[in-house]
Design a protein that fits this description.
Strand content: under 5%
Order of helices and strands: HHHHHHHHHH
Shape: globular
Distance between the termini: 25 Å
Radius of gyration: 18 Å
Number of helices: 10
Largest sheet: none
Helix content: over 70%
Number of strands: 0
């Protein structure tokens, strides 16, 4: 097994463990509410993005087939890098001091917010194919977080529950929440273009080394 495949297998395993712990923490202690708590679990951007990273890591570890081709695309790996970076940064800046964790919850939280994002980014830099990402790609990468935001706002309007405090329209009002979302969207876009530039530079470095 190559270093690339072994690395992504490790990331996939750790992401699966982290997701499993987070699911147990979310669902446990709520008998008879499996469906509702599962929806809660799937309403966190952290969970969805770690699931994306896990799926792409599985594809990279397999080394062939349709899933591998999707995972090996520079656009795919760079987009996930943007999203997983936002997961880590937003948690550290806005959420870290707000969460009270059990012992097992601490491990799950560390995996999905710190270890998996960090290992994914190392793998992106060291192993992922680079180059050829078009100029509009970072704008297309906004579709996922924008669709996620739409889901949260619709679900929150119906249930009164929001997965992240800064998205709580009921508490802060529509305008302040929209302003926060606009700032985060700009962060996504700026990070996307920054990572596209990094991807291009990594492609040049790798090409020069291969000569």
């Amino acid at each position: 097994m190559t270093a690339n495949r072994a690395w992504h297998l490790l990331v996939a395993i750790l992401a699966a463990i982290g997701l499993g712990i987070e699911y147990d923490v979310t669902v446990g202690g709520h008998p008879g509410q499996l469906a509702g708590r599962t929806i809660v679990f799937l309403s966190f951007f952290t969970i969805l993005t770690n699931a994306l990273a896990m799926t792409a890591s599985i594809g990279a570890a397999i080394g062939e087939g349709r899933l591998h081709r999707w995972a090996a695309s520079p656009g795919t790996s760079t987009a996930i890098s943007v999203h997983i970076t936002v997961v880590a940064v937003i948690f550290q800046l806005l959420l870290a001091g707000l969460i009270h964790l059990t012992a097992i919850g601490w491990w799950g939280n560390m995996l999905v917010h710190q270890l998996v994002p960090g290992l994914w980014l190392v793998g992106w830099i060291a192993f992922a194919p680079h180059g050829g990402i078009d100029r509009l790609a970072p704008l297309r990468w906004l579709i996922y977080p924008l669709a996620y935001t739409a889901w949260v706002l619709i679900h929150g309007a119906i249930t009164g529950w929001y997965p992240y405090p800064f998205m709580d329209v009921g508490k802060y009002g529509a305008r302040p929440t929209a302003q926060k979302m606009a700032v985060i969207a700009l962060f996504f876009a700026g990070l996307g273009y920054a990572y596209r530039w990094i991807d291009g530079r990594l492609a040049i470095i790798r090409q020069n080394r291969s000569r």
